[in-house]
């Protein structure tokens, strides 16, 4: 079966781990917990890859395609090099690349799916598009909303989720993000969009 590459964006290091900007990387951890092949208590373990990323090879369904979960070990704005390296290493075409990332222009807690299009000022996406030579990859866009008042969006995304958000929003957002990745792989973009874009 065809291999998929699923990449969660974020910045490396413990000081960034809880940032809103790292929600894509957080969602990869949720997917790792769904590894259907057993592993260590069901959770896939990550290993350092020469493409400058942490990777785990999983199956989200058995039978099902191999899914390479990856978090670049570089800073967000140079995510493209690791992604291009992993695509080449695993021989994955661009249409089977899924990128999970934070999205200011989507209401907090909502998940939206698309393929291609612009990067909306997101430096991680811009780096990937430049490095892989295409914008036609799948995106799982995780809504974090706009900053309150006049707070600079660049500062907002580099702040941790609030205590209330970590309790009332984040677990559901990460669960939906993982569900969205599974849906993209199993039923394709249009059916997945109908499911996740429908009013709840």
Automatic annotation (TrEMBL):
Known EC number: 3.1.1.29
Keyword Acetylation applies: no
GO CC terms: cytoplasm
Entry's Gene Ontology molecular function annotations: peptidyl-tRNA hydrolase activity; tRNA binding
Single Gene Ontology BP annotation: protein quality control for misfolded or incompletely synthesized proteins
UniProt-listed InterPro entries: Pept_tRNA_hydro, Pept_tRNA_hydro_CS, Pept_tRNA_hydro_sf
Self-association state and partner proteins as the record states: Monomer.
Protein name, as recorded: Peptidyl-tRNA hydrolase
Organism: Humibacillus xanthopallidus
